[in-house]
Design goal:
26% strand; 5 helices; alpha+beta; 6-stranded mixed β-sheet; 9 strands; 196 residues; D-amino Acid Aminotransferase, Chain A, domain 1; 3-stranded antiparallel β-sheet
Length: 196
């Protein structure tokens, strides 16, 4: 359950937050208690912003900022003093299909051209422990933060409820876009409320 902001001390931005990892299941959960998103094919990455200084952190906490200076510069331009965002750094072809090999090549060459950072969660914002709030509220605040952001930063949209139908449509679109993508037809499903 989210704690009220009143009476709560303003906190500094955390150095690193262990990511909430996905879990493989046989079927997508159904019902309005679930939010569904496309699972992009890239590197799970956190972006930590603290008064203009950005760190791009891997899912294990490694600092990879030096590999993606243009991405770090874009995060630095967000309208916040402090923020901690969760997302997926992807290589994206001109047709919109994500490519894991593209991001691997960009990482090895130090070339961030063609990379896009899709953000799907906001955990800290200007002293507020947003991660303690319900997911649906975090998504709304993330959308507001990214509303004026320029590429390569993007908000990852979600669909509420109807998980099996959403998964089926995601697989159909992946198959139409790229046959190789069909085997990677994955979605991320998360509950919009936090249960204490």
């Amino acid at each position: 359950m989210a704690r009220p902001l009143a009476g709560r001390a303003r906190a500094g931005v955390p150095e690193w937050i262990p990511p909430q990892l996905t879990e493989l299941v046989d079927t997508a959960p159904d019902g309005d208690d679930w939010l569904h998103e496309i699972k992009f094919d890239g590197y799970r990455m956190h972006a930590r912003l603290d008064r203009g200084v950005v760190k791009l952190l891997t899912r294990t906490g490694l600092n990879w900022t030096h590999k993606y200076p243009p991405i770090a510069a874009a995060v630095a331009s967000l309208g916040a003093r402090q923020a901690y965002l969760d997302g997926e750094l992807c290589g994206v072809f001109s047709d919109g299909i994500t490519s894991f090999s593209m991001i691997q090549a960009a990482s090895e060459a130090g070339n961030a051209a063609g990379l896009v950072f899709f953000f799907f969660d906001l955990l800290h914002l200007d002293g507020d422990d947003v991660g303690a709030r319900p997911l649906i509220e975090r998504k709304a605040r993330l959308a507001a933060l990214l509303s004026g952001a320029a590429p390569p930063l993007h908000y990852s949209e979600y669909h509420r409820g109807q998980g099996p139908a959403f998964h089926q449509q995601a697989c159909k679109l992946a198959l139409e876009g790229n046959r190789l993508q069909a085997r990677r037809c994955r979605i991320r499903a998360r509950q919009p409320r936090i249960v204490a």
